[in-house]
Amino acid sequence: MNAPPHQLIDGFGRFHDNLRISVTDRCNIRCYYCMPERDVQFIDRHEILSFEEIEQFVRVAVSLGVSKLRVTGGEPLVRKDLHVLIRKLAGIEGIRDLALTTNGVLLAEQAETLYDAGLRRLNVHLDTLDREKFRQITRRDDLPRVLEGLDAAQKLGFGPIKINAVAVKNLLEEDIVPLARFGRERGIEVRYIEFMPLDAQGLWDRGKVLTADDMLARLAAEIGPLEVVPDPDPRAPALEYRFRDGIGMIGFIASVSRPFCLNCNRIRLTSDGKLRYCLFALEETDVKGLLRSGAPADEIRRVIHETVNKKWLGHEINTAKFVAPPRPMYSIGG
Fold first, then answer.
1. pLDDT of res. 217
2. What is the domain range of residue 141?
3. Any bridge partners for residue 125, and if so which?
4. Which of 1, 72, 272, 320 has its CA 20 to 30 A from that of 179?
5. Does position 4 have pLDDT exceeding 50, yes or no?
6. CA distances from 276 to 50, 310, 325 (A)
7. What is the largest CA-CA distance in the chain?
8. How far is CA 45 from each of CA 41, 49, 80, 142, 324, rounded to the nearest angstrom?
9. CB under 8 Å to 264, separation ≥6 — which residues?
10. Is the pLDDT of residue 136 over 50?
11. Over the stretch 215-242, which tens digit does the pLDDT of each residue have?
């Protein structure tokens, strides 16, 4: 894709048109690889961007060529009246893609208002279909509610719907195939995400990463041969495959074993108004102060440009130089 004349192009020639927006750092489950079970330190609510501030920032970003938005958390559905923000974002001229990532626990009760507000694309986090293992991972017994939310979303006509599963070695091997079969039956693409060093408790090490190659081999052996989806979007984070029998697709976000940094087109806005050029960035830029002080759009544009210009070549997970970011995933935004 050619960049528009407004461009957000970094020093390596990467054009950025994709903005991920975290609306809260709070969550209603406690996945062990993401958050501590107790005594989680959340951002003060007064420091969280309002819907109006988010909309203002997005409008400026759109003037620089941003056309794709993903709303995340924490768990975005715990943010009161999220459908109000979705309606605001869906109504911005120039937005051609709007998506939401959720754990699905509150999806059944909010799906209709979100759909009516203009949302169509959903990614639902689900690591396992086994109720006891779900409870073990999330420290909550909410699997039935997640499945109910998926049912509600499909009945309303959301699409595409994708499932995100974090692949942790020596824990989720036995869940890879059941999830793929579930996706094949339901017309849902399952995306397996390699375990990344973003947990709040320092649990990550490379030996706990279930790699895309390992998962591909298991799926091919137990379900059937797979082939790469032709003509993939080179800037998409997932490596996408389809089963040769024509039933179903799967994807791998292989941030550890096959980093996709060279094609990255994303910037991130945290719930407390910090702009980040990478999930793993060690620095971030405050834009909340600009938004709350009434700074003109040109000043916000300048700060966005400066942030993108600082973007590094990649996160270096696979080198001795890697340093984990000081904020965990739930605080940055998924």
1. 93
2. 18-163+262-332
3. 164
4. 72
5. no
6. 18, 10, 11
7. 59
8. 12, 9, 12, 26, 26
9. 14, 235, 278, 311
10. yes
11. 999 999 999 999 998 877 766 777 899 9
Three-state DSSP state, 208: helix
180 lies in some domain: no
CATH number at residue 296: 3.20.20.70
Domain assignment present for 28? yes
| Nearby residues of 90 by Cβ (< 8 Å), 6 or more positions away | 98, 117, 118, 119
The total number of residues written for the chain in this structure: 334
Q: Kindly state whether residue 285 falls inside one of the protein's structural domains.
A: yes
What confidence tier does 1 reach under pLDDT thresholds 50, 70, 90? very low
Cβ of 237: how many Cβ atoms within 10 Å?
Answer: 18
The 3-state secondary structure of 44-82, one letter per residue: CHHHCCCHHHHHHHHHHHHCCCCCEEEEECCCHHHCCCH
Neighbours of 261 (CB within 10 A): 17
User: How many CB atoms within 10 Å of residue 221?
Assistant: 10
Q: pLDDT tens, 96-134?
A: 999 999 999 999 999 999 999 999 999 999 999 999 999
pLDDT digits (tens, 9 = 90+) for 16-48: 999 999 999 999 999 888 787 777 888 999 999
Sequence letter at residue 232: P
Check if the beta carbon of residue 139 is closer than 8 Å to that of residue 94: no
What total of structural domains would you count in the chain?
A: 1
Backbone angles phi, psi at 270, to 5 degrees: -80, 165
- Give which of 82, 77, 74 is closest to 50, Cα–Cα: 82
Q: Are 212 and 252 in contact (CB under 8 A)?
A: yes
What proportion of the chain, given as a percentage, has pLDDT over 70? 87
